[in-house]
Design goal:
- The protein contains 12 helices and 12 strands.
- The chain is α/β, with parallel strands linked by helices.
- It folds into 2 domains: 169 residues, NAD(P)-binding Rossmann-like Domain (Rossmann fold); 97 residues, UDP-galactose 4-epimerase, domain 1.
- Helix 2 links the parallel strand 2 and strand 3.
- Helix 4 runs parallel beside helix 5 and helix 8 crosses helix 12.
- It is globular, with a radius of gyration of 19 Å.
Length: 296
């Protein structure tokens, strides 16, 4: 079986690639970074170096593949990340049409059911819809929840203001959290398992904690007991993200995601179907890594 893997050698794509190679499969890893070529090949995979915005490159890279793992890369240098996401989504669909690939595993996100109003997740909902329109395609949609790694953005607040916070967390709802290792494990399982339906949806979650509990545990891990979670206004959250170095595009998208978390819509479908955390990684585990990063 020949697998096409997008996402270069990121936190999810690298272990997925390693797992597929260990299972005896042929793997092509797409990366925009020429310096990754040797590392990809040292794993035993084939390197396809080029831009996911390049039609001809993507169509060539997808040729001969049996299964494709799709993820939209993140790039904080982009002036309009939302437009980039939609462009990449369209390029993926075009490349699939030009290939003989009929089986896809898509890394989407919790909140993609909304299609609109969840910031950077809206484009993933768009891609879900576009893939569903392709006749004969079997798609496994993976919807991980809020990444633990997003919480590293709290370091500055805790260090300099003694608080954690965002424009969500002001309700009784717990935040559903996911670790990238747990995502990679599920992605591998779905890539290797038979495809039996036109579309399936799998939620991936590692833990559920209220933001106040998150703030208290992260604060305790760095010697700041009793650190509270403060729910900011949208304006303050936007300005805070701008002050932390995010451009207008990313700050706006993440503000919108916070709004969807605050009003409960982002996690509503997960709740409706009774999904539960199945991953092994918990907030206590993340707190250890958070403390190490805080100390640097």
């Amino acid at each position: 079986m020949k697998y096409i893997i997008t996402g270069s050698l990121g936190n999810i794509s690298l272990p997925v690639t390693q797992n597929l190679l260990k299972a005896g499969h042929e793997v092509v890893v797409i990366s925009s970074n020429p310096s990754k070529k040797d590392q990809i090949e040292s794993l035993g995979a084939q390197a396809a170096i080029g831009s996911v915005q390049d039609d001809a490159f993507l169509e060539t890279a997808f040729q001969g593949g049996d299964v494709a793992y799709l993820m939209v890369p993140s790039d904080f240098s982009l002036a309009d990340y939302g437009a980039f996401q939609l462009e990449v989504a369209d390029k993926y669909v075009q490349a699939i049409k030009a290939s003989n690939i009929t089986r896809i595993v898509l890394l989407s996100s919790i909140g993609s059911h909304l299609r609109k109003g969840a910031g950077p997740i809206d484009a993933l909902g768009y891609l879900e819809e576009k893939l569903a329109e392709l006749p004969g395609l079997q798609v496994k949609i993976l919807r991980p929840s809020y990444f633990f790694t997003n919480l590293y953005s709290q370091i500055g607040l805790i260090k300099h203001a003694g608080i954690a916070g965002s424009n969500f967390g002001g309700t009784d709802e717990k935040l559903i959290l996911t670790d990238t290792a747990d995502i990679a494990a599920v992605a591998t399982e779905e890539l290797l398992a038979p495809f039996t339906a036109p579309q399936t949806i799998t939620y991936i979650a590692s833990d559920e904690r209220h933001p106040q509990e998150i703030a208290a545990m992260l604060g305790s891990a760095v010697g700041k007991e009793g650190t509270p979670w403060v729910t900011f206004s949208d304006e303050d959250a936007f300005n805070g993200m701008k002050g932390a170095g995010l451009n207008d595009s990313f700050a706006q998208l993440y503000m919108e995601m916070g709004q969807a978390l605050q009003n409960g819509s982002m996690q509503e479908h997960y709740r409706e179907i009774g999904a539960k955390p199945t991953g092994n990684y918990k907030l206590e585990d993340f707190a250890k890594g958070f403390a190490a990063a805080y100390a640097q």
